[in-house]
Amino acid sequence: MASNLKKKTDKTLIISYDVQSKTDSKYIRALVAITPATDKSLPPGSVFATPEILNVINQEKVFQQDFSIFNQSYYELGVPFREPDGQIVFYIVGLPTNSTLNRITTTRYAIGKIIEYVYGLYNLFKNNKRNKFTYYVKSQSSSQYVAVITTVENENGQLTTGDSISNTKVVNALNNGKEFHGNNINVSGRSYQALYKPYKLFHTNIVLASYILNQ
User: Fold this and answer.
1) Does the keyword Nucleotide-binding apply (predicted)?
2) Are 66 and 76 within 8 A, CB to CB?
3) Which residues have C-beta within 8 Å of that of residue 210, sequence separation ≥ 6?
4) Cβ atoms of 10 and 94 closer than 8 Å
5) How far apart are CA 132 and CA 57, in angstroms?
6) β-pairing, 72-82 with 88-96?
7) How far is residue 85's CA from residue 161's CA, in Å, rounded to a whole number?
8) Mean pLDDT, 10 residues at a time, over the chain (215 residues)?
9) What is the pLDDT at residue 142?
10) Which residues of the chain does CATH 3.30.450.20 include?
C-alpha cells in the first residue's frame, strides 16, 4: 500500500500511518514506507517518539516544517485525526529538502492517497454487519498486538482502533508463529468465529484477523 504510493511519487519519500495504543498511549507505526536504509530499523509496531512532532499532533494540529531526521533534512507534513472513541491516528510524509519535486503538492498528494487507501479498506466492509476484519501490529513498547485498522465496533458502535488482543490463547499462538481459529471468541463484547493469521514484515509480527459474528 504505502510502498506502491512511493513508486507513484518518489522513492525518497518517508511515509507512515501511526496509531495511538490504548495500552500505553504510545504511537506505533502501522503502515510504513521509508528509505531502504531505515526500512528494517523502523518497522510496523515500532514507536513513533519524535517529541517536536508529537507535541503538535497531540494538539490535533497539522505539523509542517523542515525537520532533520536520519541525518538528513526533510520537509515533514503530519495530519492527525481523532477517532470517535478518542484515539488519535496520524499520517505523516517526509520529502528531502533537496528534492527537485514541489514539496507542497507532493506531500499533500501523498497524504491524500494514504488516507484514501486506509479509508478505502473501511468502505469495503462498511455495510457488512457480520463479517469483520482487523490488521494488528505487535507494539515494540507493550509487546501487545494492537488493532491499527479494524472494522470491529465496540458496544457503543465505535471502531476499536488502538485496542489490543486480550485472549491469552490467541496471543500465545501468535507469539509462537501459529494461526489461531476459535468459534466463540469474545471481541469487544461480542462473540465471533475468528481466524488470526500471523505474518512477518521487516522481522516484526503483524496479524490479519477475520471474524464472523455468531448469531
Assistant:
1) no
2) yes
3) 131, 132, 133, 194, 195
4) no
5) 29
6) antiparallel
7) 8
8) 51 86 92 64 87 94 88 91 86 90 90 87 74 92 93 86 93 94 89 92 83 81
9) 94
10) 125-213
- CATH architecture, domain 125-213: 2-Layer Sandwich (3.30)
DSSP 140-171: TTT--EEEEEE--B-TTS-B-TT-B---HHHH
Q: Is residue 211 helix, strand or coil? A: strand
CA–CA distance, 151 with 159 (Å, rounded to integer): 6
- Which numeric CATH code is attached to 2-124? 3.30.450
Cα–Cα nearest to 21, from 104, 103, 87: 87
Overall pTM surpassing 0.90 (yes/no):
no
Q: What is the pLDDT of residue 213?
A: 84
Q: Which residue is associated with the grid cell 514541489?
A: 102
